[in-house]
TrEMBL record:
<dbReference type="InterPro" id="IPR036812">
    <property type="entry name" value="NAD(P)_OxRdtase_dom_sf"/>
</dbReference>
<protein>
    <recommendedName>
        <fullName>NADP-dependent oxidoreductase domain-containing protein</fullName>
    </recommendedName>
</protein>
Length: 49
């Protein structure tokens, strides 16, 4: 959920995930399609702040 959360922080924020294995790359690519609601974003932001 870090990739979609970071992507939602603004157009000037670009997540750059690293990986050593192909399956992790697939997970990172699939995360681009996860849509977080406003409530999801608020909950995540409250927990990381």
């Amino acid at each position: 959920m870090a990739i979609p959360w970071l992507s939602a922080q603004g157009e000037d924020i670009v997540p750059i995930p690293g990986t050593k294995r192909g399956r992790y790359l697939e997970e990172n690519m699939a995360a681009r399609h996860l849509n977080l609601t406003a409530d999801d974003l608020n909950n995540i932001s409250a927990r990381v702040s």
